[in-house]
Design goal:
Blueprint lengths: L11 H4 L5 H14 L2 H16 L5 H12 L9 H8 L3 E7 L7 H20 L5 E4 L7 H9 L5 H24 L3 E3 L4 H18 L6 E6 L5 H14 L4 E6 L4 H11 L9 H17 L4 E6 L3 H13 L9 E6 L4 H9 L4 E7 L6 H13 L3 H19 L1
Parallel strand pairs: 1-2, 1-8, 2-3, 3-4, 4-5, 5-6, 6-7, 7-8
Length: about 400
């Protein structure tokens, strides 16, 4: 048994050590805005209106929410954020956050960009993972048709073959460069073909260690069983399971669709059930760490504390390469930086891309911080605590 370190997620001096006073004041402004739902909704509406009219507001966006939640407009422009995080022991996961593409040409452009992120990771000690969404490489309508089991036309079958080839190209390069790659989870009505591709890639490239990681959304009622099944499949076929655990990102959309189409909601009935499933998932992965590599993708302080304790109880060192913690850039720095300071392996998801193209991502961050109970309030509390501490120390 390893001694359990005493980690405090209240230590704001460590949490915001990488932020200047000006950056901290900017964070205070951003989270003060999203902490008031009507102000956040009004601001978001005005930004969408201005963007639709092609008004020149991208400079304002870039200097505020973009700089807080994104690394840069390109891989190269993200270097400052990558190096800043790396100086404090926090890795970067470059997340190409351009959305809404639908043509084969766009999918191929996204593939080329994703391959560049792996090339970048190979040359940087501060980039431990790469990541992609299958919907960046495939039509959502096509994935939905595959999941329904509908017969594909010849053209659709050709397109789906290209999708699988793109996924393989990413995972093959990740394997060749020894850069683990995360396959993001998506909506339930397209998740089955994504899981199937992830399983196939793991069977192909995870023979020596986990290179390909699938993502498991524990707010879904069936995910814990899916995780156990994925582990059994890895055992039966002699490969390693890469598992990124998250609570989930599409709750309102999932419940609304289930209600409108008259099928049972695939989402846990309440937060307590989700928390239990997530923590049970952590326990399962740690109990099977000989075959599983785990990324805990969580902004929940209790779950991160639990994983620290489970590692200690099972004799797993803080810097064991099979266990990672991850949070989004611009959020939960109290978790990321305090864990990194204690020697744990931590990475931030760092979105990048042209300002206008990443706006859907930024709108989601605003909506989530407004709707998730206590998220923006907690961020604000910590930011203001650190501002007071800095004023008092001057």
């Amino acid at each position: 048994m390893e001694p359990e370190p005493k980690i405090s997620f209240e230590d704001t001096a460590i949490a915001f050590s990488y932020k200047s006073n000006a950056e901290l004041r900017k964070a205070n402004f951003i989270f003060s805005t999203v902490n008031h739902p009507w102000i956040s909704a009004a601001a978001t509406g005005m930004v969408k209106f201005a963007l639709n009219l092609r008004l020149p507001i991208e400079g304002i966006i870039k200097k505020t929410v973009f700089d807080h939640f994104c690394g840069g407009v390109s891989i190269e422009k993200s270097d400052a954020a990558i190096n800043k995080l790396g100086a404090f022991g926090v890795g970067t996961i470059l997340d190409y956050s351009v959305e809404g593409e639908e043509s084969e040409e766009d999918f191929d452009k996204t593939l080329a960009e994703l391959l560049r992120t792996i090339d970048k990771a190979k040359t940087s000690k501060h980039i431990p993972f790469s990541v992609f969404k299958v919907t960046g490489l495939a039509s959502t309508a096509l994935l939905e048709k595959v999941q329904r089991g509908d017969k594909l036309s010849d053209e659709e079958q050709t397109a789906y073959t290209r999708v699988k080839a793109r996924v393989d190209a990413i995972c093959r390069k990740a394997y060749e460069h020894k850069v683990p790659v995360l396959v993001d989870a998506e909506e339930t009505w397209i998740q089955e073909p994504i899981d199937a591709m992830a399983d196939e890639m793991m069977a192909r490239y995870n023979k020596e260690k986990a290179i390909v990681f699938n993502t498991y959304q524990l707010y879904r009622t069936e995910t814990l069983a899916n995780l156990r099944h994925a582990h059994k499949k890895a055992l039966d076929n002699n490969y390693f399971l890469g598992a990124k655990l998250v609570r989930g990102a599409y709750m309102e959309k999932e419940r609304a669709r289930a209600e409108s189409q008259g099928y049972p909601s695939p989402i846990q009935p309440d937060k307590e059930a989700t928390d239990k499933a997530f923590n049970d998932g952590l326990l399962f992965c740690i109990q099977h760490i000989d075959r599983v590599s785990l990324m805990c993708g969580s902004h929940n302080e209790q779950s991160n504390h639990l994983l620290v304790r489970l590692m200690a109880e099972n004799g797993i060192k803080a810097d064991d390469p099979r266990v990672w913690f991850a949070q989004l850039y611009g959020m939960s720095d109290n978790i990321s930086f305090n864990l990194a300071k204690a020697g744990y392996r931590v990475a931030k998801y760092v979105p990048y891309g042209p300002v206008r193209a990443v706006m859907p991502y930024l709108f989601r961050r605003a909506a989530e911080n407004t709707s998730v109970a206590g998220q923006s309030s907690r961020e604000l509390l910590l930011i203001r605590k650190e501002l007071r501490r800095r004023r008092a120390s001057r």
